[in-house]
């Protein structure tokens, strides 16, 4: 699976262009008393439920993870198998209905799940299907990301799901714990040599014998987590306005500092760093390749998930930098 297909569908265009904004949970303070709850979706429209949802269908992996983190197992999940392969921070229990692939949900399967609310991102539902989907249950489609404030966007989406489920107090606890944990890890990693070296995070993409690299800027969620840990991103591109992801070729990598730690992630189905790039003199001649500063990372970590994945990525990042 490529990065383009791993990210929410239609995010292909977002890798190059687009804009992000922050969806908000209107009732995101204390625990819901069981009355109405209201959130604002990615287009600024308010969605109100008469009571917190007990049965939720999730159309995107981040929202699936968020619901489970909040203690609610979705009754319907988009791409159950894919979620289990890419996101190990939250475990699906029971037998939720698989409601189809992300961006191409099955209305029949969703209706069978009898949800109180359907949650995803704006790319989750084709425009010509949205009206029929709303006939099944209220639909909340959030902005998937925002490179101008990636951590804030992740948190606001998490709070939106919490509000819909009446789990605001749980959300406050989870986020406070995450932020405290990141502070602890920052102190730990900054006391090691690994914390002083620049890094990059890339998703190599092979087309035949040619490999290009999806580079994760500080505006990407994984890049923002690294910044919170005090790490310096050696790739200075801004990336696109939504996901904070840009592109580089081998020539572009030659401008990176010699002591860069090159972290990369990707599908378990292929690894061009091991199969294609060793045949390239331009790759093998890079200083960080010669010195063995190339590390595969984030297997089983969904880098665009919620607080649970953020903690998991921070752990993996610190551990992998220490071994580089």
TrEMBL record:
Superkingdom of origin organism: Bacteria
Example GO BP: iron coordination entity transport
Gene Ontology CC: outer membrane-bounded periplasmic space
Residues covered by the Fe/B12 periplasmic-binding domain: 55-324
Signal peptide extent: 1-25
Localization terms from the record: Cell envelope
Residues passing through the membrane, by range: none
Annotated family: Belongs to the bacterial solute-binding protein 8 family.
Name assigned to this protein: Iron-siderophore ABC transporter substrate-binding protein
Organism: Metallococcus carri
